Amino acid sequence: MQLPEKILLIDKPSGITSFDVIRILRKKTGVWKMGHAGTLDPMASGLMLVGVESGTKALATLLKLPKAYEAEICFGILTDTGDITGKILEEKTVTAIDRPLLKNVLEGMVGTLQLKVPAYSAIKQGGEALYKKARRGEVVDTPVRPMTIDSLEFKDMYTKEGKLRVSVVFSVSSGSYIRSIAEELGRRLFVPATLSALRRISIGDFKVADAKTLENL
Fold it and tell me: Is 41 tagged catalytic?
């Protein structure tokens, strides 16, 4: 797929929001009309497609493209956000998981899953983003959405900072939340699990290897 005119490939660093990326780019370019095709959580890094001026017209189409992520999932912890930055809801010592079992469970997740959207997400309910309600301490009734794992690749399993972790590359449909997938993996293994690192490596045919950092733009 050819890159539409006035679309930037940006490698977002972890620690800032997707809107921070837009804010920084507006300051660098002096252009106000700007948007992106798919939010990345502050913890996450990786590819963002940013439309500038007339390029914003292509964003709705680009948003529907499949995506691929490198994910690190931490076993033994369940949080309210679905990732390691959240408040711990459950903690359990997990020292080992049988590798063949883990691979079989992962392979069994390929396909379309019906999973709850994370409470801390930009999905709107009653005209307001869920994360705003969650931050106020409101009980959020998160909707169930189809999330499709087209393929996955088990990379490694290791211990870091006293916690057992697994590294997996997921190729998923648009609208899939890796946080929800991480928690589902834990449920299938009967252990708490949460996302501890995430990097988006592709959107459709566009690769993070071809993206520019905010410093090098």
Answer: yes
The residue annotated as part of the active site, out of 11, 20, 41, 150, is: 41
* β-strands 193-203, 45-52 pairing: parallel
Question: Mind listing the pLDDT tens digit of every residue in the chain (217 residues)?
Answer: 667 789 999 999 999 999 999 999 999 999 999 999 988 999 999 999 999 999 999 999 999 999 999 999 999 999 988 999 999 999 999 999 999 999 999 999 999 999 988 866 666 666 666 666 657 666 667 789 999 999 999 999 999 999 999 999 999 999 999 999 999 999 999 999 999 999 999 999 999 999 999 988 7
- What span, in angstroms and rounded, lies between the C-alpha atoms of 121 and 143? 11
Q: Is residue 149 within 8 Å of 55, Cβ to Cβ? A: no
